[in-house]
Amino acid sequence: MNSVTILGLIAGIFTSFSLLPQLIKALRTKHTRDLSLSMFSILATGIFLWILYGIILHDIAIIIANAVSFFFTFTILMLILKYKN
Prior knowledge:
The chain has helices at residues 3-17, 20-29, 37-57, 60-82. By secondary structure, the protein is mainly α.
C-alpha cells in the first residue's frame, strides 16, 4: 500500500465517520424531523456512484470510504422515513 492510498484511506475515515454523530443522535432521540429527506437521498445516490467509480478504478480507498459512508447515509435515510411525522 503506497502513501497516496494511505492518505485516501485516512481522508475516507474522517469523511465517512462524520455521519456517525448524526446517526447516533437519530437513533437515541428517534427524531429526524429536521433532517432533509431530499438531501440524504441525493447524498446516498452520489455516494453509491462513488462506489461504482472506485470499483471501475479498482481503488480500494474510494470503495471502502464510500461503502462506510453509504451505510451510514442509507441508515439515516431509513430513519428519516421511519420517524417521519
